[in-house]
Specification:
Layout: H1 2-7, E1 11-19, E2 22-29, E3 36-47, E4 52-64, E5 67-75, H2 83-96
Antiparallel strand pairs: 1-2, 3-4, 4-5
Length: 111
């Protein structure tokens, strides 16, 4: 459905990534296709000690018009009592997500 709606406005999906119930879709207007390169994706499971995809993070990175960008989506433990667990899982996602691009091989390397 979203593809049909967005295609009417010249958007196309350039990359998608799924982890359990998490889904990240990246769309771009067709006129920008010549300016996008190095599109990559990565996922990190953090549920049940990294064994389950019920919690985790996923990302899509690209170079667009000379700028390296990354889009991150995550689902972490809920409620105040799980704050420390969320911070640990957040750090795990940051440490484990990696890309082939030499200039921006981690999430924090991106502009």
């Amino acid at each position: 459905m979203y593809k049909e709606i967005l295609s009417k406005h010249s958007y196309i999906m350039v990359k998608s990534v799924k982890l359990g119930a998490l889904l990240l879709l990246t769309f771009l207007q067709q006129r920008y296709l010549p300016y996008v390169s190095n599109i990559e994706k990565d996922t990190t499971k953090v549920g049940f000690g990294g064994l389950s995809s019920n919690k985790g993070g996923l990302s899509i990175r690209m170079d667009l018009c000379g700028v390296n960008i990354v889009i991150v989506n995550c689902h972490l433990a809920a409620h105040f009592a799980k704050t420390e667990e969320r911070i640990i899982d957040y750090m795990t996602i940051l440490e484990n997500q990696s890309f082939k691009n030499d200039e921006s091989s981690t999430i924090l390397d991106h502009e």
